[in-house]
Amino acid sequence: MAIRVLLVDDQPLLRTGFRMILEAEQDIAVVGEAGDGLQALDQVRALQPDVVLMDIRMPRMDGVEATRQITGPGRDGPAKVLVLTTFDLDEYVVEALRAGASGFLLKDAPAHELVQAIRVVAAGEAMLAPSITRRLLDKYAGHLPSGEEPVPDTLHTLTEREVEVLKLVARGLSNAEIAADLFVSETTVKTHVGHVLTKLGLRDRVQAAVYAYESGLVRPGAQ
User: Fold this and answer.
1) What is the pLDDT of residue 145?
2) What is the mean pLDDT of residues 169-187?
3) More confident site: 197 or 154
4) CA nearest 62: which of 37, 85, 93, 79?
5) Can you name the residues that pair with 119 across neighbouring β-strands?
6) What is the mean pLDDT of residues 194-220?
7) How far apart are CA 45 and CA 48, in angstroms?
8) Whole-prediction pTM value?
9) Do 43 and 6 touch, CB atoms closer than 8 A?
10) Element (DSSP H or E) covering residue 163
């Protein structure tokens, strides 16, 4: 079955461009468009998309609040949100990730990256490109813990290997890359990631990465 996508952006020209790119793919169907967050909520309820391609800065209701309502408790459907951001990284992206977005993509990304991001998010994975993630976190380094603060109690529920995996997730590594780094199988990595999310009460890898930085476990610029 085709991946059902809802396009949300206040610029019609951009929506048209995204539609042309996505409708060229056999496994993706654009089921609707919205020009602001309020329209997006109505369209999500009516159309039940799999993925919402969400702009952040929009009139009436911005993408952060729309994302929170789409992915939050009592949501009407299983829609995943992929946030669109500008080249210089919108200051609201972190808030969108906290609100429940499954990842973010630059508006000027090549067409094949947009298509791949839709597929990754639809499959239940997080779109957390390492290069963009590092730029984002470096931009907000001053707002994140220095690493000298007390470690949250919840972090102590993780095993030593699970902490290692969390650090690598925070760096934006895929399961395959983590497996190669730790010399274990991808299946083992998936198990560890699942345990991390369950123990910390997190929804996905994006929230795990944000948690790792906010808790001080990982510092911007650290390897």
Assistant:
1) 46
2) 87
3) 197
4) 37
5) none
6) 81
7) 6
8) 0.70
9) yes
10) helix 160-170
